[in-house]
Amino acid sequence: MSVTILDKEIGPIGYGLMGLTWRPPHLLPSTQQAFAAMSAALASGANFWNGGEIYGTPSRNSLHLLAEYFDKYPEAADKVLLSIKGGVVPGTHQPDGSAAGVRRNIDECNRILGGRKKVDIWECARVDPNTPIEDTVKALAELVKEGLIGGIGLSEVKASTIRRAAKIHPIAAVEVELSIWATDILHNGVAEACAELGIPIVAYSPLSRGVLTGEAPKRNADLPENLRGYPKFQDDVLQGNMRLTEEVEKLAKQKGVTVAQMAIAWVRGMSGRGGLGVIVPIPGATTEARVLENTKDVRLTEEEMQEIDEILKKNKVVGERYGGPVAKLSEG
Length: 332
Prior knowledge:
The structure is a single chain. 39% of the residues lie in helices and 12% in strands. By secondary structure, the chain is an alpha/beta fold. It has a single domain (3-211, 261-298), classed as NADP-dependent oxidoreductase domain (TIM Barrel), CATH 3.20.20.100. It has an eight-stranded parallel sheet. It has a two-stranded antiparallel sheet with strand order 1-2. The protein is globular and about 50 Å long. The relative contact order is 0.14.
């Protein structure tokens, strides 16, 4: 299925930049390693890049890394379709979808990029509960008219929010979580609304934060610290949930691919299936080797998709996607 967003053709698999600037300091890749991963993504056809002002700190986030990359590789700028998340109070994760807030965010993104690259799609990372989505989209529509951004995206939104926003201005993409471990959007109306409105879905975390790489954690303490608070990764449910990964791993071995490739191919394979629209997985990776693994052109047959359907029916993942305060902000 050919994928076009904002009149630009993109590869069927995109690239998530989060891990390149938002990790514990001792786990952050060097600039050289990050550049190698970014170049590998582009060379593999993964030219939809998803970053964020929120991925790091005000002084070091995706925008700073991108500015440095496009300084070194200016010819890459036109090849990339760049999507950026923001919409928060500076230095926090408190949503701010006000007209003044989104203008400040976008002005800051453009200041850092310094004309090296335009933000093609800009989106609030979370819907501001204190600002109607109509007001946020109206403000963003003005910024599109001014040429400060190319289009408007939505992130972590309900079906009703998508429909309300689309009445104000065309929506370029909706970014939501989708993986074999997180199929919520297939059942809560979000995927259906996007299909009805012709809005591509950008599927983040297609490897469910690493548990679909085949490197199965045995207990909560084995997980990276930032994942230990997630409900589905708690010790009382983790081993049961990991059975789903183990079943997918069996299919991957039969096909001669990795678990990660199988999981990404499943998300990609949902495009056009059962009336759904375009779905573009955006796996993140901090090394060239992992990027090349994630972007390999693996496609599943309908029979293989049905096998995974059966696995999903028999192995229900237990636990919400997020816990604590974040859960309250996960949908608009």
